[in-house]
Amino acid sequence: MQHHSAAPLPSAEDTDVNDTNGKPRCQGSATSFCVTLDEGLTLECGATVAPLDIAYCAYGTLSAKRDNAILVCHALTGDQFVAEPHPVTGKPGWWSRTVGPGRAIDTNRFFVICVNVLGGCLGSSGPATLRDNGEPWGTDFPPITIRDMVFAQAKLLDHLGIGRLFAAIGGSMGGMQVLQWVASFPERVGAAMPIATAPFHSAQNIAFNEVSRQAICGDPDWCGGRYWAQDTIPAKGLAVPV
């Protein structure tokens, strides 16, 4: 890795529009950051994503010993905006009742990080990331696993100089990430709190997800996965209940 040394830490009071890597934050948010790791990440499938963009939100203050960091892992339909209004929808943070000053995950005591997962659509490398030809990856983006998501998060923690987490917490797909953290980096996790999750999907869950995928792909506005080039959105397929 090229980024083992500790980077300057983000601060909620820092109102500059760029972080230390010059990557713009989400507009209107003093807690949202994005770093670029030039060495990238080799995925389980064998493909390499380089450079690697990792977007995240940070709350609270990291202690001098860097031993009070809590990683909150988001679910499939979540993102890094865990404790503040969402910059796109305007809705409250998805766990704003739990993360914040004086709350269960107390940002007066802990430095809380929530990372947009690898493959996400709010800043981390994924299908929406532009390639060298100026077009998004789209459906050409390589397949990713929960392990890939966790290894990307570990690279971010290396960049921030955080060797060990006080705790990793998450529900659903976020809980799967927590379990992967314990499996892959047990020495880096002080405590783990996987919520409403499992180490693998049942056949029924896999089948339900396949129904969802087929509903989207069956929408005429899907356009073979290049709907963005046709200025369409497969909204009907996305709206099909399962």
Low-confidence stretches: 1-22
CATH architecture annotation of the largest domain: 3-Layer(aba) Sandwich
How many DSSP-defined strands? Answer: 10
Mean pLDDT: 88
Q: Please provide the ordered H/E string of secondary-structure elements.
A: EEEEEEEEHEHEHH
CATH class of the largest domain: Alpha Beta
Structural class: alpha/beta
Indicate the proportion of strand residues. 15-25%
Plain-language structure description:
The protein has 242 residues and is of the alpha/beta class. Helices cover 19% and strands 17% of the residues. The chain has helices at residues 146-160, 173-184, 203-217, 235-239; strands at residues 32-37, 41-42, 48-49, 52-59, 69-73, 99-100, 105-106, 111-115, 167-171, 192-195. A six-stranded mixed β-sheet has the order 1-4-8-5-9-10, with helices on one face. It has a two-stranded antiparallel ribbon with strand order 2-3. A two-stranded parallel sheet has the order 6-7.
Identify the notable features of this structure and list them briefly.
242 residues; alpha/beta; Rossmann fold; 2 domains; 6-stranded mixed sheet; two-stranded antiparallel sheet; 4 helices; disordered N terminus
Write the layout of secondary structure elements.
Layout: E1 32-37, E2 41-42, E3 48-49, E4 52-59, E5 69-73, E6 99-100, E7 105-106, E8 111-115, H1 146-160, E9 167-171, H2 173-184, E10 192-195, H3 203-217, H4 235-239
Parallel strand pairs: 5-8, 5-9, 6-7, 9-10
Antiparallel strand pairs: 1-4, 2-3, 4-8
Helix pairs in contact: 1-2
